[in-house]
Amino acid sequence: MGPALKASSIKGALIWVVMLICSITLCISLTIATLQDIRAEKKNLSEQLYSYAAIIAFNAVSSIEIDDSEIEDRRLASFAAESRLHNIHIYKLQENGELSFFASYNRRDVGPYPTQFNKAEQYQNATIGDGVMELTKKIQSDGKLLGYVYIRASLEELSRYVQNRVLFDILIALCSLIGAFVIATRLQRRFTQPLYSLLTLVQKVSKEKDYQIRVPAMEITEFHNLGRAVNTMLDRTEQQITKLRSAESEIRQLNQDLEQKITDRTQALKTSNQDLLNTLSTLHQYQNQIVETEKMASLGQMVAGVAHEVNTPIGLGVTASTLMQDKLAEIQKAFDEKKLTSNQLAKFLGESAENLGIIYRNLERAANLIRSFKQVAVDQSNDNRRYFNMHQLLNEVVLSLRPNLKKTQHQVILNCDQQLEFESKPGPISQILINLIMNSLIHAFENKEQGTMTISVTLANSRCYLHYQDNGSGVPENIRKRIFDPFVTTKRGEGGSGLGMHLVYNLVTQALNGKIQLESALDHGIDIQIDFPVIPK
Known about the structure:
single chain, alpha+beta, 13 strands
């Protein structure tokens, strides 16, 4: 005799299913929301520190130029109201290339912090460690490096926010699960009570053989229909009883034949089911293979693109460093043999400066490429919305690109009302304009000495319409159809990453919730239409 089948009740199963679904949903949603909030808080703190550093660097230019540290000390003292700022240092670049301490601010309950000369370059990207966030920013004037600003801020408020958020999420989860349990209990009662009544009636009919009993009407439609079906069955059973008594032998024979047919059909059905299961298993195997193949193909394309773009600047940096190492060995040998001349030393210093410049430029280029690849993988949207002047924003973008524009005879023409103001996200808009202008400088005007880029902005029906044009070389037909795809470039191996227009597309459609359309032909320039919703002032 086989083992007894372990039975389970609908009551318990219904409660457990509801509680399990609620628990999984709550855990996933609360975890995602909490992680996003924590990430947003870290990002906000980093952006605020960058803003402070930019303000301090801008104000410190005049103080460093006149060599008056007292003025800067008084300015830095104004940051005492910001409790998160522990230490602020300003380092001045001496004529010999070394850094020296210029001015500082130290929170009273924290005290002075050692100088970080050797980490001035390392902390230009915000770094988190030991409960603090640190960053540095260059102090420049007309492209000349004057020094660095170093900021050290506490993460205590962020830690408290994380703890409070976790406790709040746990409280919400407990309340939700209690509510779900109460609702599931009431729900199972509503469904199981009619079922128990029907089960009791069927057991009574089975025990007493009284087929005149009928199921009463029920409130739930499905159970009501089931009751009507049971009543119909009882009616027909009652009618058949008399016929069964008069033709018992015939029915037995029919039952035997029916049992044989059922056995044959059951066996055939088992065979068909087994064949179906085998086919389904094979299909799943092929499906999994196809999915894995697609994943590996996509991964291969991404790795190939990243490796190709990053390998060139790194290779140039390695070559320059190797050459510099060889030159250093020659100088060391001449020095040890006391044959070192001033001409040799001057030549070595010149070549060293050139090689270090090559290494720095290529490493910086590799870092920029990696940041660009990282930006493609994450959401480009920025939730910081504010009212701003669009004409002023355009001027700031053109000003920020002045080092690139002043090397050429190209010009940027702005057609925008000087009083145009609205609420939107200036960060993505600036990044879009910078990418479009740099794209024109690199690609459109490659073989043209004097080019024109025109940016026109209008406002209508609570939407901003941004029109960008250039009179450059245009885009080939085979590239234009996939211009917004990642790693599409005509400069493969020449410094082009193929991510600029893809980033523009993501910023327009995701960060600004807008639309973008591009028209271009060879030797006829490029025409880009962008529109996105705004709130007029």
